[in-house]
């Protein structure tokens, strides 16, 4: 396997007093499915957002596909971002647009501003959008306005929008935090398939420990901006989970076991 992403002593300071990340280092291989878990405020979201510089890191280096991300100028950063799809807790869809229009928005980063404004998409792009939505089980919803979709359907449009970029990696920031258990399962299964069958690296922030253990190849546990666990889910003991969650651990009732679902 080859490393797709490497973080070297990445740190993030907000203002004077908040050190959100301290010397975060890890390497992720192509096609790996990695979950970042940890208590509220641990720095999970900041960590994910530093990778594509939605949040600017204040120290360290991030190498994505051989390119150092912190040093990139605006244009080069936009180009690199087309390789990194992002999925959000609140979907970030344009409500008045249809599922297929929102999906096609994923192509905007690769177009001129004018072509984007005029909504000029090639036949090939439209076909790809149709195919992606079909694969994600949204054939019937393709021409529905996004505000008429359920949360789970909206998130699947979010996934289609990310995939139409033809990314090498997906960053998923709490993708199931607003969903019911059934829709969450559907989303996690799609993400797992994307990693296994398309070879796309998936890095996901999760609040749900059991879900992380079930679907991931690897868990990165974060507490107070530092990595406190990095390894396979199967190797995790309840002490390690307690170590990651600190004071929150007593509120977690989980079944250990590991091994991911297909
Ligand atoms: N824009 C910001 N300005 C100042 N402080 C921030 C900002 N964003 C995050 N922080 C702080 O950085 C720390 C890490 O926050 P972050 O949102 O990354 O944690 P998290 O693990 O994702 O939390 P949660 O699980 O609750 O979403 C927290 O102390 C938070 O208050």
Automatic annotation (TrEMBL):
Keywords: ATP-binding, Cell membrane, Membrane, Nucleotide-binding, Phosphonate transport, Translocase, Transport. It comes from the Bacteria. The keyword Cell inner membrane does not apply. Coiled coil: none annotated. The keyword GTP-binding does not apply. Residues 5-249 form the ABC transporter domain. SMART domains: AAA. It holds the Pfam family ABC_tran. One of its GO terms (molecular function) is ABC-type phosphonate transporter activity. This is Phosphonate ABC transporter ATP-binding protein. The gene is phnC.
């Amino acid at each position: 396997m080859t490393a797709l992403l490497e973080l070297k002593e990445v740190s993030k300071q907000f203002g004077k007093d908040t050190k959100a990340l301290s010397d975060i280092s890890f390497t992720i291989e192509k096609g790996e499915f990695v979950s970042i878990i940890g208590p509220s405020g641990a720095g999970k979201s900041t960590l994910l957002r530093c990778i594509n510089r939605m949040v600017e890191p204040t120290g360290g280096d991030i190498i994505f596909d051989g390119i150092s991300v912190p040093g990139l100028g605006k244009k080069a950063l936009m180009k690199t971002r087309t390789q990194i799809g992002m999925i959000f807790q609140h979907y970030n869809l344009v409500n008045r647009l249809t599922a297929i229009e929102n999906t096609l928005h994923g192509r905007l980063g690769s177009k001129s501003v004018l072509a984007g404004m005029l909504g000029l998409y090639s036949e090939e792009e439209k076909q790809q959008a149709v195919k992606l939505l079909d694969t994600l089980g949204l054939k019937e919803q393709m021409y529905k306005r996004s505000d008429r979709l359920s949360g789970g359907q909206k998130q699947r449009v979010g996934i289609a929008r990310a995939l139409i970029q033809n990314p090498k990696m997906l960053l998923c920031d709490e993708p199931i935090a607003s969903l019911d258990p059934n829709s969450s399962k559907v989303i996690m299964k799609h993400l797992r398939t994307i990693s296994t069958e398309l070879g796309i690296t998936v890095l996901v922030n999760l609040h749900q420990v059991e879900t992380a253990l079930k679907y991931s190849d690897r868990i990165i546990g974060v507490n107070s901006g530092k990595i406190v666990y990095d390894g396979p889910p199967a190797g995790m003991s309840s002490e390690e989970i307690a170590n990651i969650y600190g004071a929150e651990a007593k509120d977690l009732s989980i079944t250990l076991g590991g091994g991911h679902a297909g």
